[in-house]
Design brief:
The protein is 51% helix and 14% strand. It has 9 helices and 7 strands; from the N terminus they run βαβαβαβαβαβαβααα. α1 packs across α9 and α8 runs antiparallel to α9. The protein is globular, with a radius of gyration of 18 Å. The protein starts with a strand and ends with a helix.
């Protein structure tokens, strides 16, 4: 089983959205996926439960936060029936975070490209490095730029990227742009793959140009999510090979 964790001590970094996008894309490609929701807000768990209550399909299993001392045991149990376990971590230096990181193959650290978030990401990097030393096992990690401008790279993002390169901190080549379809995942209890049909229905009887524009936004979001997931799997594969 491959264990991919998402962490950032700052809220609003796109951590939970990044985790659920990856889970959906891997599931769509045929992988057996599970999500362990360790974030105290439990947004993925609530999203999953609400979909089930409405009779909607959830293409991956979602597990609730266990007691801290049961974390490693639960991760090992899930490994029997799962190819990829995606863990949405809380942001604090909690014991449960250390336990989850000790079983991690790749830790993804989302940030929006601002200098403030770069400092928070550096804190997450240090936590991963400290845990790696404690368990005496290398833990691969990478930064992921999220909530970025889809049209261009801002000066802040460029400067942060250059700083990370100077400090030899790995960064995913694909960004997750700030797109309206991503906000609908939790707001409307949808999967990204649901949106083309939903948008078609919402725009029945409206001008074709309006409908096509909305569908284009969805298609761009799906392409972005697919490219991002492929980049994560490629990075995970390189770590395995090493």
């Amino acid at each position: 089983m491959n264990v991919i964790t998402f962490t950032n001590p700052k809220g609003g970094s796109g951590k939970t959205t990044s985790a659920i996008l990856l889970a959906e894309q891997i599931a769509l490609s045929g992988g057996r996926v599970a999500v362990l929701d360790l974030d105290p807000n439990a947004n993925i768990l609530a999203w999953s439960q609400a979909r089930v209550e409405r009779g909607y399909k959830v293409p991956f299993a979602v597990y609730a936060r266990p007691q801290a001392e049961e974390t490693v045991e639960l991760i090992d149990q899930i490994s029997a029936s799962t190819d990829y376990l995606i863990i949405d971590l809380e942001g604090s230096k909690d014991q449960i975070v250390t336990f989850a990181l000790s079983r991690t193959d790749l830790c993804v650290i989302p940030l929006d490209g601002s200098p403030m978030e770069a400092r928070q990401a550096a804190t997450a990097v240090r936590l991963v490095q400290t845990t790696s030393k404690m368990v005496r096992t290398p833990i691969d990690y990478t930064l992921l730029f999220t909530r970025t401008n889809a049209a261009f790279q801002t000066t802040d993002e460029r400067d942060v990227r250059q700083e990370m390169e100077l400090n030899a901190i790995p960064t995913l080549p694909v960004r997750i742009a700030k797109r309206a379809p991503y906000t609908r995942i939790f707001r409307d209890l949808v999967l990204l793959a649901d949106l083309p049909d939903i948008v078609e229905m919402e725009h029945e009887g409206r001008a074709a140009s309006v409908r096509d524009k909305a569908l284009k936004q969805v298609a761009s979001a799906i392409d972005n999510a697919r490219d991002y997931a492929q980049a994560v799997i490629h990075t995970l594969g390189k770590g395995r090979a090493a």
